[in-house]
Amino acid sequence: MALMDSVTLAEATAHALSLDMQADTRVVVLGEDVGRGGIFGQYRGLQGRFGAQRVIDTPISEAAILGAGVGMALAGLRPVVEMRVADFALCAMDEIVNQAAKNRYMFGGQSQVPLVMRLPIGIWDASAAQHSQSFESWFAHLPGVVVACPSTPQDAFGLLRASLASGDPVVFMEHKTLWGLKGTVDDGQLEPLGRAALRRSGNDLTMVSWSRQVSVCAQACEELASQGIAVDLLDLRTIWPWDREAVLTSAARTGRLLVVHEAVQASGFGAEVAATVAEHTGARVRRLGAPRIPVGYAHTLEAQSRVSAPAIVQAARDMLKA
């Protein structure tokens, strides 16, 4: 066990995989460009250490890559499948939705699919509509899979190892712009699936978010604090299962819930959180997400799809007025 300072999120996940591949020969990696370390460096050094039979470069066919991963998992391996960006995984939806997610149920528990599918999400600067999408609510709607959305290097490290250990298919959704984010990583610490992290405490409002939007919420909370408004900021970390108890407890105490996410607001996972809180507490609820438009390439158009810290501050202030 070691405490590592100034580790990027990409380095944290490469280290997590290195530890699991060393401990368990069933853990393998497959995907495009993984041999050279992946496009974000999240597999750097692994093929040189474990060989091309365990870090497997594949052809450009998402359906084939994920189909192979499902087959490997059913055959007893523990594959990590790289999709480069979540947008490309749309070419492999049958393998995710009808194979990975349903196999254990349809065969009466006789088989498991211990598969980690890495689908990086989010607005990727100047990458336009086909490389900047957030699909976490799609997979939360899908019975049979776990959905993880880490926001820090420590969480990416711990949740990736927990995902590999879970025995279930996991959709692991790192944000594309968080790969270079640096932080301290304790490699002896796992992060349990389904447990939120309290990023700051306050009694005036509960704010819930995940992935990169947590850091934007933290900026908004700093501004709100300067105005005398104290916020409970909860980072869900996993979208399914999500930490209902932590959110309900906080919202019941503060009486106000604001759910913020980068994904399109319409039918986003924030609606599930808001509806659950409305059903079980007397708290006022509000959602804040992106407009239902494609992400533009031009900076000015891309900005229209971002949920900014000033917008979050204004939404929080509006809730406190009523």
Q: Your description of this structure?
A:
With 322 residues, the protein is an alpha/beta fold. The chain folds into 2 domains: 3-186, 3-Layer(aba) Sandwich (Rossmann fold); 197-321, 3-Layer(aba) Sandwich (Rossmann fold), CATH 3.40.50.920. It contains 12 helices and 14 strands. The strands form 3 sheets. The chain has a 7-stranded mixed sheet, with helices on both faces. Strand 6 (146-148), helix 7 and strand 7 (170-172) form a beta-alpha-beta unit. Helix 3 packs parallel to helix 4 (93-100) and helix 9 (244-254) crosses helix 10. The protein is globular, with a radius of gyration of 19 Å. The mean pLDDT is 95.
List keywords for this structure.
Rossmann fold; five-stranded mixed beta sheet; seven-stranded mixed beta sheet; 2 domains; 12 helices; 37% helix
Task: Give a quick rundown of the structure.
The chain has 322 residues and is of the alpha/beta class. The chain has 12 helices and 14 strands.
What's the domain count? Answer: 2
Strand content: 15-25%
Q: CATH superfamily name of the largest domain?
A: Thiamin diphosphate (ThDP)-binding fold, Pyr/PP domains
Give me the secondary-structure category.
alpha/beta
DSSP summary, beta strand count: 14
Amount of helix: 25-40%
Overall pLDDT confidence: 95
Order of adjacent strands in the largest pleated sheet: 3-2-4-5-7-6-12
CATH fold category name of the largest domain? Rossmann fold
Second-tier CATH architecture of the largest domain: 3-Layer(aba) Sandwich
Distance between the termini: 50 Å
Series of H and E elements:
EHEHEHEHHEHEHEEEEHEEHEHEHH
Main beta sheet, described?
7 strands, mixed
Shape: globular
Spatial extent as radius of gyration: 19 Å
Assign the CATH class of the largest domain.
Alpha Beta
* Low-pLDDT stretches: none
What assembly state would you assign to the polypeptide chains in this entry?
A: single chain
Number of helices: 12
